[in-house]
Every structure is written in C-alpha cells, then in structure tokens.
Amino acid sequence: MSKTTFWDIIEKTLEKVGTPLSAKEIWEKANELKTKGDYLTTGLTPWNTIAAYCYTDINKNGNDSMIIQTSNRPPKFFLRKLNVSGTIKHIQEDDVSKIFKNKFSERDLHPLLVSYAFGNGHFKANLKTVFHENSSRATKGQNEWLHPDLVGVYFSFRDYKNETLDMQRQMSTPSIKLFSFELKISLGFANLRESYFQAVSNSSWANEGYLVTLDIDDDASFKDEVRRLNNAFGIGIIKLNPDDIFESEILFPSKSNQEIDWDTVNRLAKENSSFNDFLKLIIEDSKLGKVKKNDGNFNYDEILNPEKINEYVKNKGISAGEK
User: Fold this and answer.
1) Which of 3, 71, 215, 317 is 20 to 30 Å from 105 at the Cα level?
2) Is the pTM of this model over 0.70?
3) Among 315, 280, 320, 321, CA closest to 297
C-alpha cells in the first residue's frame, strides 16, 4: 500500500479547503482535516518542505505547474486545476521584475550598502565594488560564485591610539577586518537557497560574510529557514532600508572567522583586478595609518551623505517591494 507523500498532503488539503493557503496553513489544515493521512515526519518545520515543493513546481514547470502562487505577503498557494475560471490571480514568485517594475538593478543598491557599512558601528568599513566583468576569462563554471558583489575593510586606526596600534603589532594581533557582501533585490523561498549558498561560496574567505537584500519575505516559516541556514553556515543577513539607510538591520549576524582564507584571497586577486586593487588600497592605507582621500580613480566606493542618499534613492526609484 502506497504511503502519503507531501504532494498528496498539498493536493488533498487545497482541494478540501478550496481557497489559497500559506505553506504553514496547508500543514495545519492537513492535521485538522486529516488529509495528512499516514504521513510521519521527524522534521520540526514540515511547512518549509511544503513551500519548497510548491516553489520548485512553479519554477520548474511554469504554466504547466500543478501549483500557482496567489500572493507574496504572505506567500499563498493554490491548485491550478481549481482555478479554471481564472478568478484567482496568480504570480510567478521568481519574477522579481514584476514586483519591482524594473526600476533599478542590484548594482544600484551598492551606494546604499557602502554608506550604511561605513556609518554602522559594527562595520565602520570602507567598501569597494568587485566588478565581475573585470575577471579573467575562464572555463565555463570555473569562477562561478567566486566573486562577492562588494568587499570591505575595517581599520583599527579608526578607533585606537598609536600606542595601542603598536601594541597590536607587537602581539601580532590583526589590525584589520575583512568583510564580504552578496546583494539581492529580494529574498524569498524561491531564491533563498541559491542566494545563500552563493554567499557561502564567495564569502567564506573573509572574517565576516553577509547576504544583503532590500526586501525579505516576512513569513515566519521563511525566517525559521533563514535562521537554520545561519546557524549551520554562518552567513549573516542584512535588510536595507531605502527610506533611512542608517535604519537598516542586521537580521542575522555573521559568524566571525578569526582566520582569513589566504588561498582564496590570492585566487580572487589573480582572477579579478577590482579585488586586486582592493588589496593594494588596504596595504597603502595600513602603511599611512589613515584612509587617503578619494582621487576619483583608484579608491574605495564613494560614501554618500544623508542628503545625497535621499536624492539618489529618489532618482533611482528605489523602494521596498509591494506589501
């Protein structure tokens, strides 16, 4: 006798309820209506699996998917076959351009993160964009997920007196901290795993690595999944606030690595001129004991003051997604 599967639970529950439900609601209703059948799970968040099944079906099968998504906040799902009249509007979750209307790109968010990271007490960092187009050509797939979008450096000379810095050198204590950032416009179940492991791949060399987004799914089950990934792999999550960039939040802190992966740093420097320039800047500024002024050519990304940030956000049409 065949056993109940997640697909059985999803289909039977939606058929019985007859209205769109979130992944967690599907699981709760399955228990209430006994559509769970003989299914047993040791997982603590089976609704995460239900959401993954739904998103995979939508993204893989497109207009032939069994499931349709009917809303973003919270994400709700329904059976395509029950929507024959077309009265229930559905969306493609992975079509970010529909949510943000193609007003801006991921790279347009760089100045916001640059200004936030410089003024934030945790980072106090100068950031530089890593232009992927500056990478050397390689065999297809060889450099995939190698480069982060931005890299940053904190210098202890911003906070410590010369005597303290001398003592750091005597004790061979690192006087800099390196950060890595991967940027996404939106983060939800549809792109979470790919985005997160992209950040794991291109940020593991640094002291701290972050996945940064303008808009993030606020569904409780989604936050649970992000927390699990954060606990397991240590990449932090930052949510940018375009209305007041200095009110942006570190939703999940990065695990701090005491050691730098110098082999990866060396590979990045070989493969990408932007990253190599970043290392040169760190060396020069460490010797000077200060960050030299921007010469407009060879330096970190420009830090915008609050007035310029507001003007920039307005001109670019940057805003969080539709709620």
Assistant:
1) 71
2) no
3) 280
